[in-house]
Design a protein that fits this description.
Blueprint (H helix, E strand, L loop, with lengths): L2 E7 L6 H15 L3 E7 L6 H7 L3 E4 L5 H11 L4 E4 L10 H12 L3 E5 L11 H18 L11 E4 L15 H11 L4 E5 L13 H17 L1
Parallel strand pairs: 1-2, 1-4, 2-3, 5-7
Antiparallel strand pairs: 4-6, 5-6
Helix pairs in contact: 1-4, 5-7
Amino acid sequence: MRITVIIPTMNEEESIGLVLDEVNETLAKIGGGGEVLIVDTNSKDRTREIAREKGARVIDEPQRGYGRAYKTGFKKAKGELIATLDADMTYPARDIEKFVQAIEKYKLDFITTDRLSEMEEGAMNSTHRLGNWVLVTTMNILFNMKLKDSQSGMWVFKRNILKKLKLTSDGMPLSEEIKIEAWRRGLRCREFKIRYRPRVGEVKLNTWKDGFRNLFFLFKKRLG
């Protein structure tokens, strides 16, 4: 199988159908076989039902946590490549096709994305923008990196690199940790710009709590 798309969910009935329509269209264009894994944490709405109707495989992950959901998905993935997305329509699933092509053309191991350079109006408020600037600046200084966006949740990478990465976070910091690990392990990595869109559905991010947790994690990771 060529590619696995992993999407964590928790009460995403407003948007998950739209996301999966875009994903399924993209996988059909890529060809070579693909699967979609929905890693769901106790959704109380129709998220799981809609996902199954759209052809996705639903995996239960009762333990909450962004990182926990992705690590569960990584273990279940069958594709040679893994792509990740949020379930709220913010990330352009159609770009997966060009990232798969970039991995093959440039012989890359890991691609991450930059939401901040080409963000659509209304996609992120000024507080979130400031927080993202603080986090990416801190990460670049601590780990000698040059990324534009440390918190992006859209990645495309070869599944076989996972055995080289030490992923410890079960929460939001996994987003920055997987990038740190990919770069520090000497893998062939690149960051690409994407159009970041306003989300569909309820906002679940706790701006201050998650922001300080991610900042603390960077120092912990650096000293660890």
